[in-house]
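Re-running the complex after MR caught last week's input typo. The corrected sequence lines follow. Everything else is unchanged.
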Amino acid sequence: MSIIRTEYLNKHFGALHVLQDINLTVDQGEVVCIIGPSGAGKSTLLRALNGLESVHSGKIYIDDTLFLHREEGKLVSAPPSVQRKAMLLETGMVFQSFNLFPHKTVLENLVLAQVKVKRTPKNEAEEKARGLLDQVGLNDKAEAYPAKLSGGQQQRVAIARALAMEPRIMLFDEPTSALDPELVGGVLAVMKDLARSGMTMLVVTHEIGFAREAANRVIFMCDGQIAEEGPPAQLLGNPQNPRTRQFLNSVL
Amino acid sequence: MEAFQQAFRQIIGWMPALIKASGNTILLTATAVTTALALSVFLALGKISRVHSPSGSRGLNLLRKAASALVRGISSAYVFFFRGTPLLMQLFFIYYVLPRYIPALAFRERFWAAYIAFSLNVAAYLAEIIRAAIQSIPKGQLEASHALGFSYGQTMRMIVIPQAYRRMIPPVCNEFVMVLKDTSLVALIAMTDLTYQTKIIASNRASSLVYIPAMVVYLVMTAFFTIVFNRLEKRLSAKE
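Corrected-run output:
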């Protein structure tokens, strides 16, 4: 069954048609990487999936239930707000710029939404948070403020924060692009662990190595379209579309 | 030498009246700024009010959009009016004109007229400070809050305002010191603040130099609050 499915998503930024009839399906347990040149619409697509970007037209299904349907820039249908929020929480999001809450400690960053949004009792939420910090190798940083952590550590906390809400799919928006090169490995290692544990993941990335190693499927996007998709060995090793070949030549 | 001693004795003689009157200046500043702060939070949130997540029926969304536009319009008009007209005119209008049409507002104490005028006026300036502080919080904070399922109200209360609060302390303190000086306008409705008291004493030609110690009292007050606020700022920023 699919965790996320889109039908004919379209979006324009002025004259730029940034998403063109995007039909994307991510099945349970799949790790899908989206690669492509900047301005291809990768991030916009990812952000549209949890409502951070509005779309002009198209449908988004989460868990095979309609999450959003817009036509001609107008809302056609969406579930009532309580259900909408529950569906939103099926997706966890990790941002390029981490976006941790700087006025809260690491532990509070992981606990706040659990307690205030999911109404988890505080001690339960803290226990879960500490377990997740352990999982990303930062259990000694629970009481620190984000500003005291390196970029790589902040991103691992951000991953743990998203996981604390128990999402069914994790969306990663260029999670290592803002990091110093020596910090990228630690974040990718956490993501690979997550992939191995069976988490469904949709990752916008420039890390071709990660896509080759961890993905079940790679999607190449350019000019607002899905130009080519396939298993990593095929798409990265023997691309059919000349645009894919051109892109891979320029980054590898 | 003789002249110096005489001047000194004169100054000592004025002091009790000047200090008593500066109590009114501080009282008016403190009460008006406090009231204005409470009012300005609503104005600031009103000015940036938007409909955030489209959900529910189309009719309900239209209603929410209309309500939000109304709130935004009223808040913006308020700020536009009070920042765009002279404070002294606002004070005169409230003290002299309003009571003629609304007898309940016939102020027995001039203080209340001054308090209302300054509260309303300062709220408009503070609203802009608070709005700027709120809007200076990076968009990523809102996006992360959205992704974690926080409502707009929760995001404002738990994420945005606690961060904006630290950024608004320096300009709010600055505004406080400005208001402290601006309250000297109440001398024009004959409220006994430091300026008016000085003017009374100076009306006797022999005492016209009273303006000099009076200005020193203003300097002492502004210096005192500047130092207190600087300390406060340091203590709050040390936490992060």
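None of the earlier attempt is carried over here. Residues 2-238 of chain B form a domain with the MetI-like fold fold (CATH 1.10.3720.10). Chain B touches chain A at residues 53-56, 58, 61, 138, 140-141, 143-144, 146-150, 154, 158-159, 162-163, 166, 240 (CB under 8 Å).
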